[in-house]
Fold these 2 entries.
Entry 1:
Amino acid sequence: MSKIGIIIGREYKTRVMKKSFIFITLITPVLMALLMLAPTLIMTLGDSSSRNITVIDQTGIYAKALTDSEKYHFIFANQSPDEIRAATKNSDALTALLVITDTLAKNPKAAALFSHKQIDIDTKSYITDLLDDFTEKEKLSAYNIPNIKQIIEDSKANIDIQTKVWSDSGEEKAGSSELALILGMVIAMLIFMFIMTYGSQVMTGVIQEKTSRIVEVIVSSAKPFELMMGKIVGVALVGLTQMFIWGVFVSLLYGAGVALLSPQLLHSPDIAATMGNAEQIAEASANPMVSEFIGALQSVNFLQIGVLLIVYFLGGYLLYASFFAAMGSAVDSETDTQQFTLPITMPMLFAMYAGIYASQHPDSALAFWGSIIPFTSPVVMMARLPFGVDIWQIALSVGLLALSFVASTWLAAKIYRTGILMYGKKPSWKELYKWLKY
């Protein structure tokens, strides 16, 4: 077995067998699911505490508008605002004081809310909606046009534009710009996280071996280049393992979601034959929204996205990991890496912002060049893929990424072989440039 293979096996086994790797691999999908469901769960919880709103209505016409609900209770009073303020200064009985000084149809700013502390947005919105509805009805009644409310309601168009995608054979498939936007942003963030996480692991591993002097023993039997490549490839395999596990989890979740969204199929005797056919699932579903959603999923080339996710992860990781390894070899501790890691992380941070922009404007000049330039292409290209990208652009992007990895590995190896055995000196950028010329 080659020396690089031995180093790869060591790096892979020691990292995959760690409890932290197993824990993160298993818990991350659960945390991501909870993160996506958290806003919905929070909205359902709400605030059940009651709100007492005292009302001073100088017009005497808004008692019908301000009706009580389970949460909001309106109390009409004849005192002055100063009297109510003084009476409720040290009491929690009053949430807010609503003062209406004029007809809101004529003067929309004639209403004001007073309180001893800032009013929450829900309370303000609830009262505003009640007064808005009442005032609109009051204005409509003033026109004395028969059935004017029904006329206005019937005049609303409620247009729902359907999006269709043509395949290469000319077949029409349902599409979804919203789905492509969300998918593009999620994939861009995922590949950014993978590259930065595992790239920094390479740098941390190099620093730990250097500070513990283990590297002095290893380089006596393996060349510095073999050590660097073994570490980079070993950590890459760890990332692919985690990606594979998450891919299986997402596939199972997708299958379960389709089954839940299409309950009619669960009672079908031919469920085994129809379960894998998304078109039959869409047709069997009684809910048009489910049909539309599953049809939109059909237009996404998940096979292409899955394959290119691996390709761009490997390309982007190998490109940046070689620099991370070189920077790790040049310093004696992690605190000394800040001056060197900033130029490495800045392109990736820019790629993240460009990827978010590309998921909204996939055919813009920034999206195109961001998906071609190797330092940003792994993130930006993945953000564009759900919208469809020409094959020649993908081929050009992958080709330039591969050439950049070869060049970056050659440069990083020259720094690595010099810095890995150098101690007690903080190198400058000028010093690193000299190492490149050795």
Note: The CA atoms of residues 115 and 233 lie 63 Å apart.
Entry 2:
Amino acid sequence: MNETKHSRRNVLMAGASGVAAAILTQSARPLFAETSLTLPPIDRGKGLEPSFKLSLAAYSFRQHLDTPGKPGEMSLFDLAELCAQWGLDAFEPTSYYFLKNDDEFVFALKRKIFLLGLAISGMPVRDNFALPDGPEFDAQVEHVRTWIDIAAKLGAPTIRIFAGNPPKNGMSREDAFKQVVKGIRECCQYAGTKGVFLAIENHGYMTETAEAVLKIVEAVDHPWLGVNLDTGNFQEKPYEQIARLAPHAVVCQVKTLVAAPEAPNKKAPADYARIFQILREAKYRGYVALEYEGPNPRTVVPEEIRKLQAAARG
């Protein structure tokens, strides 16, 4: 790498002036190149022990929550109250369940969460950067920028993003990679001005494996990009891949199921103790959000939270 360029690893050590310089020079970086994946772990501070704060992804109650134009059985405000009752540290308000995204709604939700004594662990959004240049690609960038503004107002430290899927008429993986890197980089430049991390999730195409995720992170090379580690989305060798991503995670979502080691096409109950041990070994410090995908969340989620709380205590 040219020593005159600001790499992600150098920027993380350089302080505010380095961040500003990196943002100014990102557009000059190549969009696609083979990488040796020498990405260093996130610098979480010297001599600090791992630290976990537990949260709940609103997606866990997707069958019950309000959606825009379609009020449900409960709101994000209601679910935040349940998080407090269950002894959680934080809440993850997924963007899909905002009935509105104007200041009145956003600040009312922020007020509610704060008065409950909760933090906000992050805010997931939907996006797709695996598109050719044009109005659709530009709209995806603008969509993420809009939610960056909302996250900043809400006080959410991270936004979960996807790489995306190419259009049905086809797009090579290499071309899709270029567009994903381009879109994320553009959004990171904006996110950095708002103090919000973008966190790319291991979620299907372009991010099927830990190595694929890290290839994108290294190519974007921006101090405001990290990983949203989803423990349930790997199709094989889940614990090995969790361990590969954990040093680069800025937020973690834990699912109740993982790919079965002996039968990758099937699911097995997640070993919470093993997951937290991996996070400890990675010196992870941050939020761990339960993301439940099964039925009956009203009864199952509090049970799973108790299991997570026990595993986090070690």
Note: Confidence is low (pLDDT under 50) at residues 1-35.
